[in-house]
Amino acid sequence: MTSPADRTPARPGRRHLLRAGTLGAGALGVGAAGVGLGRSLGAPSAPADSAEEASTHWAPYGGPTVPFHGVHQAGIETPAPASATLLALDLREDVDRDGVLRMLRLLTDDAARLTRGEPALADTEPELSSEPASLTITAGFGPGLMSRAERPAPDWLAPLPAFGIDELEEQWSGGDLLLQVAADDPLTVSHAARMLLKDARAFTTPRWGQTGFRRSPGVVRPGSTLRNLFGQLDGTANPAPGSEHFAKVVWIEDGPFAGGTSMVVRRIRMDLDGWDEADRGARDAATGTRQDDGAPLSGGDESTPPDFEKVSANGFPVIGEFSHMRRARGVDDGEHQEIYRRPYNYEHAPAPGSGLLSEAGQVFVSFQADPLTQFLPIQRRLDELDLLNQWTTPIGSAVFAIPPGCAEGEFLGQSVLE
Amino acid sequence: MTSPADRTPARPGRRHLLRAGTLGAGALGVGAAGVGLGRSLGAPSAPADSAEEASTHWAPYGGPTVPFHGVHQAGIETPAPASATLLALDLREDVDRDGVLRMLRLLTDDAARLTRGEPALADTEPELSSEPASLTITAGFGPGLMSRAERPAPDWLAPLPAFGIDELEEQWSGGDLLLQVAADDPLTVSHAARMLLKDARAFTTPRWGQTGFRRSPGVVRPGSTLRNLFGQLDGTANPAPGSEHFAKVVWIEDGPFAGGTSMVVRRIRMDLDGWDEADRGARDAATGTRQDDGAPLSGGDESTPPDFEKVSANGFPVIGEFSHMRRARGVDDGEHQEIYRRPYNYEHAPAPGSGLLSEAGQVFVSFQADPLTQFLPIQRRLDELDLLNQWTTPIGSAVFAIPPGCAEGEFLGQSVLE
Ligand code: HEM
Ligand code: HEM
């Protein structure tokens, strides 16, 4: 339901239509060209209109909309846009099962509106809702929400075990309710997140919020792999959205959460200053891939399958045994778990006096049908041994159960909570 | 030199050319359509290329470049892009005049490269430099830098006087050197800021950093006025970039800083929760403009000049005497100073336990030839009386002298420091 092919151009808000007549056919071109669709659009974009025309002609800005309703929630298989805020909220003590359902109804209603480019019900800045820019809103449930709603949680829904590499900070971990708000525009994200927080305010207190970024629309080739703050192509080995393989890796098949998935959020600090000291050889050896073009060290280009058997003149594997890719894939354990990674870069200015150039890292997000049999073994292997650990430190951790999508008239999580 | 009309499409980095042949003529269309040029481009955009084509055909992504060299520095008259980081640095104690000049040469050299879409000299992630996305880098000097360079500072170069509305926090104020790094892509900004910080590292310690956002390319009509986090159109009364009027308001005419300007940076917290309680009437009365379309309360549309004489049936001025616009313009004092405002929205997730929905506000930036005769009287009037003060609080403040632009082979500030 929410595969890339389903993206439709923005339906302009009622206000826009009232103010400027109907939307011309030229709309599709510019709207669609503005976002990172990983496929040919076929048609050339409409010309940008001039400032002179602007007062009489409503230009097709605002960006595409991504359907909110569907078998799966949006924001998972849909291309990750430029900007995202993840919010984790804790239920207030006095909120019971009925309160949880009431809150989810409110949130669903406003999420549906906002993703269509319409104001939230109690929107005091409707002007900030008219550019959906591929907005998606994805909800996830922590163990606390499931028990408050008096429904059994999936058995895997629990904090991850502690890892040796972890330096978790309470402020980045856990949460009863997760809202992933993502769009191709940071003001759209900011406003939508605020509207949802307002809906949830009577029922929850904010626990943590993490904002991250990828590339702005049009800046890199649609479908390009993300570059992280180390400069690496990060996401190459992901299952392809829209494929059967993706479905197998990500979507839960049976039970109340069928059509849903699990979401692991790890806040991972990246030591950019330390990374600066490492030369290309050390960097590439740490992942087993080349920083410049993402090709495996065994050769080819980004899309070439790695050859883990290949050895150098002196008999060592070209893709080293301690490299992140080899460890993550489980090559030497005869295993191969898969997950779908959809991370965001984060960076903020250094705290005064920290001596650092910046606080930076990755809001690591992965989706998988079962975190215990997919994510956990990978993370265990990386915890044991992974050259990349020299420069990365998990400082936050949370797991959420993502209910399936809902149909119009339903609320998010209805099938699992009723 | 750096007017909007000067924007040229991205010159692809050498690496790209080597990898994929020459850049076709179709480049201009998509590149230019990706940014907010406030004028007609004339030509339709090239079609987006498909993922299949991508390996054999280098697509014209990366965004336009803005010329770095010129009579004026870029990043002032050029359209404000989607993302910006402002960095304030303090000179280390042992850095003398020679050190300052050496540092500025280094910074200028790398700023010129990065804005062309080329890696910095010691760039360890050259892959993150190949999308300039209209990158501009603007340098400003605080009093500390001028005295270390043993040159007289303009007499206005000093902290602003304290205002009654101020709740300044040391962590957001002052600084010897200001770097404004702005582009249509947050990863481009992040990387460029980091490269400049590395250059400056031996000479300075970071004092503060502020990151802000406007709209992503393509999301709103090019040339649209920014919406701030209150939902207001903010920037309507600005002098038009490229006009003679702009030049008169912004550029210094005589002396060593001729062709330069002054930059005021105020970090202004905006009480979004309080703003939520105010109804449309109270909101519009606070500014004297309508939140929805930015028209003055006296009527018309955003571009209609306000009629400050107009009174309501009961004899009160329609644009109230305490409204932000009327006070800012000095209508009742028979004055009319002007400045050029180029602010960014900021927002981050609420601190745990703060009870707030978010920490939000505006990185207020204004450019004017003389802060004492232009900015100061406006700020004094607003400090005295301005309905908007109920919801806004300055928490940081700094003033910098912006030297004129430099020619190729020169360094930023050369004409004022040599
Ligand atoms: C900041 C932290 C991390 C960085 C910078 C990073 C970087 C990378 C890079 C550059 C690659 C190779 C290209 C690709 O396929 O994406 C990769 C692959 C991979 N990473 Fe990470 N990674 C990080 C954390 C993690 C974590 C926490 C996990 C899961 C526990 C993980 C799981 C994987 C997997 C499964 C692959 C694909 C391996 C394969 O089958 O080829 N990564 N990572
Ligand atoms: C967060 C703080 C602020 C907000 C939300 C804000 C908002 C606005 C709005 C909505 C307008 C009317 C539309 C326009 O012309 O832009 C305006 C006008 C203006 N503001 Fe502000 N403003 C803020 C701070 C300041 C500050 C600190 C100054 C200077 C000290 C300033 C100076 C002006 C000026 C000169 C005008 C144009 C008045 C005219 O000639 O019509 N503003 N502002």
UniProtKB/TrEMBL annotation, chains A, B:
Stretches for region Disordered: 42-61, 279-310
The Dyp-type peroxidase C-terminal domain, residue ranges: 227-406
Cofactor: heme b
Record-linked SUPFAM superfamilies: Dimeric alpha+beta barrel
Keyword terms, alphabetized: Heme, Iron, Metal-binding, Oxidoreductase, Peroxidase, Signal
Pfam families, per the entry: Dyp_perox_C, Dyp_perox_N
All residue ranges annotated as the Dyp-type peroxidase N-terminal domain in the record: 73-214
InterPro entries given in the database record: Dimeric_a/b-barrel, Dyp_perox_C, Dyp_perox_N, Dyp_peroxidase, TAT_signal
GO molecular function, one term: heme binding
The family this protein is said to belong to: Belongs to the DyP-type peroxidase family.
UniProt name for this protein: Peroxidase
Organism of origin: Brachybacterium paraconglomeratum
Higher taxonomy: Bacteria, Bacillati, Actinomycetota, Actinomycetes, Micrococcales
